[in-house]
Amino acid sequence: MLTSREQTRAETMRKIVRASRKLLTSKGGFTLRAVAAQLDMTAPALYRYVESHEQLMQLVAVDIDSTATEEFKKERDKQSAEDPAAQLMAAAVAFRTWALTNKAEFHLVFTNPEVDHNALLQTQAASGLMFHELLFRVWEKYQFPFPAAETLEPELVSLLCDPQIPIDMKGVPEELYGLVWVFMRSWAALYGTVTLEVYGHLDPRVVEHGLIFRAMIEDQAGVLGLTDELPRMRALIDKLI
Amino acid sequence: MLTSREQTRAETMRKIVRASRKLLTSKGGFTLRAVAAQLDMTAPALYRYVESHEQLMQLVAVDIDSTATEEFKKERDKQSAEDPAAQLMAAAVAFRTWALTNKAEFHLVFTNPEVDHNALLQTQAASGLMFHELLFRVWEKYQFPFPAAETLEPELVSLLCDPQIPIDMKGVPEELYGLVWVFMRSWAALYGTVTLEVYGHLDPRVVEHGLIFRAMIEDQAGVLGLTDELPRMRALIDKLI
DNA sequence: CGTTCACTGTTTACACCGTTAACTGTTCTG
DNA sequence: CAGAACAGTTAACGGTGTAAACAGTGAACG
Questions:
Q1: What is the assigned CATH class of domain A1-50?
Q2: How far is the CA of B32 from the C1' of C29 (A)?
């Protein structure tokens, strides 16, 4: 139960974060005075809600992460729930499109050294969790092969059995922990490709036409047992991209 | 021929960039006043050499890129010139090690939205050029297969024939332009993996033990016709990492 | 019901930032 | 040798994040 004071406080908190987000992409820049002005306040008042400019950035990062993930989920859910492959593609494309459209926000959440990603990951890692869950459902349907624990480095096995990142592996038997390795590698491929595209360390036309992104998807499709589905996936991506 | 004035000017220029680099990683932060203090000057004096703080950052970025590449080349050249595979591995490991050790500098050069990468790429893209050259020499020796122009999207073919990024393809016949696509994808894999490691969007222990990096290298070894060399490469990486 | 006190805002101020303008001395050049 | 080009200074402006002191307002309690 919240007192009325706590309620208004929480709401101001939300307004602060929302205003900060808006200013992040505006040309004026994300300054405390600008944020305060949006709420008809003065800058020092913000210190009643936030410890520092940096901590506010952290809050904004978490907010962006979770609302962006909402977007991805919306795209995912436009595909049939019985078609995890299509859902995965839709989410991946949504991730890429969002990143390329909102570079400043992507930068804040995914490649900002000032943001403590580990702390962020511990509490929420909305997008990461979502992709892991999707990948698991793809495996449930297609049963693609994954490395047995015996073939992996012992260090790797031990850390896969005790994941430090919140992975929703409840009800997954120990024998399947090699799967987590596949998931990590898929995430690495997606994240790496999108980051490369966002920062443009590549011929811009390759980004424009989504050529490496498509190539990466095709590679991953092979890994995830979706080779037979490839023509369908290609058509889907053409539609989504 | 340089007049003595031009000479001292060029030297001050170098000192400014060097001081800026040093301050970039210091806790004090990279401010014009701090840079000036390092040269026993006042901040406004820097405007005789540099248009703005942002332009100075660009210069620092270029400097970092080129000196880091020197480092990579030094590691490359510790391997036999007749062994391009080993040279490539050495350079790739050097790139990764450098990135993880100097995250602030990596961030500035490779994932800083304020730095105009395209401009940077046009003039110098020291590291990119180096990797392209290495990859070409690997192909010369191992003759790994690459996609024929006919199997690629027409947009892709046309942009490969007219690269916007300075690739040293002089003397390479037109039929080999499918190779460039392999190169781009290899670069994407390396850049993506290293960026992921640097920003830690992954279980930190996976980074610590270099597990995804190794996995990425093994994948790329397959693509680059180095499957038979893998045991040797593995041993080499163990030594280098 | 009145008092107290935590809460939420204000104003003022500080140190620092990038940057501009005006001024001064030195050094090269015609 | 005169004058211009250069390389530095000081002073100042508007901006930043942040700290301290103060003021009103609403909730809680005797």
A1: mainly alpha
A2: 33
Distances (CA, A) of B100 to A186, A238, B196: 21, 37, 10
CA B44 / C1′ D6 distance in Å: 15
Q: Is A187 on the interface with B (CB under 8 A)?
A: yes
Query: Can you spell out the DSSP letters for B208-232?
Result: HTTHHHHHHHHHHHHHTT-GGGHHH
**Does A199 sit within 8 Å of B118, measured CB to CB?**
no
A114 or B8: which carries more pLDDT confidence? B8
Residues of chain B with CATH 1.10.357.10: 53-240
**CA-CA distance, B137 to B128, in Å (whole number)?**
14
Q: Is the pLDDT of residue B122 over 60?
A: no
Whole-number average pLDDT of chain A = 91
Q: Identify the residue whose tokens are 């300054």.
A: A31
User: Would you tell me which CATH number, out of the four given (3.30.230.70, 3.40.50.410, 1.10.150.50, 1.10.357.10), belongs to the domain A54-240?
Assistant: 1.10.357.10
Average pLDDT over residues A161-172: 67
Whether chain A has a CB inside 8 Å of the CB on B120: the answer is no
Chain B closest-CA separation from residue A6 CA (Å): 34
What is the per-residue pLDDT across A34-75, written as a single tens digit (0 to 9) for each? 999 999 999 999 999 999 999 999 999 999 999 999 999 999
Largest pairwise CA distance in chain A:
62
**pLDDT tens digits, B58-104:** 999 999 999 999 999 999 999 999 999 999 999 999 999 999 999 99
3-state secondary structure of A50: coil
Tell me which chain A residue has its CA closest to the CA of residue B152. Answer: A211
pLDDT on residue A114: 74
Q: What SS3 class is residue B115?
A: coil
Residues of A in contact with B156 (CB under 8 A): 206, 209, 211
CATH of domain B53-240: 1.10.357.10
Q: Does residue A41 approach strand C to less than 7 Å at its CB?
A: yes
- Where are the CATH 1.10.10 domain residues in chain A? 1-50
